[in-house]
Amino acid sequence: MKEIEISTEYIQLQQLLKLGDCIGSGGEVKHFLQETEVLVNGEKEDRRGRKLRPGDVIEVAGCGSFAVRAKS
C-alpha cells in the first residue's frame, strides 16, 4: 500500500489518482472512473471531486492501494 501524504485538510480523488500514477492528466479522470473500479474505504466511488482525508484507504483496480495520511 502506497501512502499519500497531504498537508491540507483533504485531497480530491482526481488529485490522488494523478499522484499515484494511475492517470496521466486530469482530463483522463472522468473516463478512468467510468471504466475502472475505485473503492474508498470499501465503497465504490465514481466522483472525481470526492474529498479524501487522512485515514481514508483507496483501492484502484489495476493500479494498487493508497492510504491518505497527514504530513507530519
Chart the SSEs and their pairings.
Layout: E1 2-6, E2 11-12, H1 13-19, H2 29-35, E3 38-40, E4 43-44, E5 51-52, E6 57-60, E7 64-70
Short description:
19% of the residues lie in helices and 35% in strands. With 72 residues, the protein is of the alpha+beta class.
Describe the protein's architecture and organization.
This protein is of the alpha+beta class and 72 residues long. 19% of the residues lie in helices and 35% in strands. It is globular and about 35 Å long. The two termini are 19 Å apart. 19% of the residues are buried. The model has no long low-confidence stretch (mean pLDDT 95).
Mean pLDDT: 95
Our estimate of the beta-strand percent is 25-35%
- The strands making up the biggest β-sheet line up spatially as 1-7-6-3-4
Structural class: alpha+beta
Q: Which parts are unreliable, with pLDDT below 50 for 5 consecutive residues or more?
A: none
- Give me the number of helical elements: 2
* Helix fraction by DSSP (H/I, runs of at least 4): 10-25%
What is the gyration radius calculated from CA atoms?
11 Å
Shape: globular
Termini, distance in Å?
19 Å
The arrangement of helices and strands along the chain is EEHHEEEEE
- Major β-sheet annotation: 5 strands, mixed
Q: How many beta strands in the DSSP annotation?
A: 7
